[in-house]
Amino acid sequence: MTPADPIPSEPHVVPAGEHPIWQEALAAVNRDLAATLPELHPLCLIAWPPEGDEGEQVYVALAGGDAHGSSLQPAGSVEAALPVVAEAAQDTIMGCRWQVWPVCTLHGLGMHVAQEAGRPVWWCAGIGPREPAHARAAIGELATVHRPRRPNRKRRKDGKDREERRRRQGD
Fold first, then answer.
1. Which residue ranges are recorded for the region named Disordered (predicted)?
2. What is the average pLDDT value for the chain, to the nearest integer?
3. Contact between residue 155 and residue 161 where contact means Cβ atoms under 8 Å apart
C-alpha cells in the first residue's frame, strides 16, 4: 500500500512487501508448520484498519483469515520479529484450532519459543532428569529434526527396541 492508497475499512490480507520483516519471519514459521502440520495451509498476516489514534493492527492468521491473540509489535529486524511471530502463530493455532503446536516428537509435549546461543528456538520442557529440557530446533528448521509418527511400525515383542532407544539416549 502506498501513501496515495486509501486506508482499507475492512480486515485484509497483508500484500507481499508491505511488512517485509514480519513476512520474512512468518516464512520461517511456515516452514515449521509445513514440516509438522502439512495438512494446514500456510499462515498469513491479516491487517485490521486503524481505530482512533492507533495505526493498523497486524495479526498472524490461518489461511482463512481467523486470528487469535495480540497484534504484532514493530520490530527492527527479522531476528527480533521471529520469536514474536512464532508466538503469535502458536496463539492463532491454539485459539482457532484448539491444537498444541509445535509438538516435540521425542516427548509429545508442546514446545515454546526460547533463546539459545542468541537464536530463537523451539524449546521442549523435557520429562525429568533422564530426559531434560532441550532446544529441539531453531525456528524455521523443524524439518531438519521432525520425524512423523509411524503408527504402523512393528514393535519387537521382547522389548529390545525400547531398551535400545534408552541406551542410545543415555550416550
1. 141-171
2. 86
3. yes
Q: Which of 65, 52, 51 is nearest to 11 (CA)?
A: 65
- What does the alpha-carbon distance between residue 93 and residue 102 come to, in Å, rounded to a whole number? 10
Bigger pLDDT: 49 vs 62: 62
Distance CA 171, CA 169 (A): 5
pLDDT, greater one: 151 or 124: 124
Q: How far apart are CA 131 and CA 140, in angstroms?
A: 24
Alpha carbons 56 and 73: distance in angstroms, whole number: 11
Alpha-carbon distances of 139 from 98, 103, 155, rounded to whole Å: 21, 13, 32
* 70 neighbors 16 (Cβ within 8 angstroms): no
Grid look-up 475492512 returns: 10
> What is d(CA 74, CA 88) in angstroms, rounded to the nearest whole number?
13
**The pTM is what?**
0.78
Taking the C-alpha atoms of residue 116 and residue 39, their distance in angstroms, rounded to an integer, is: 29
Q: Determine the Cα–Cα distance for residues 96 and 138; give it in Å rounded to an integer.
A: 25
Spatial CA neighbour of 104 closest among 146, 58, 68: 146
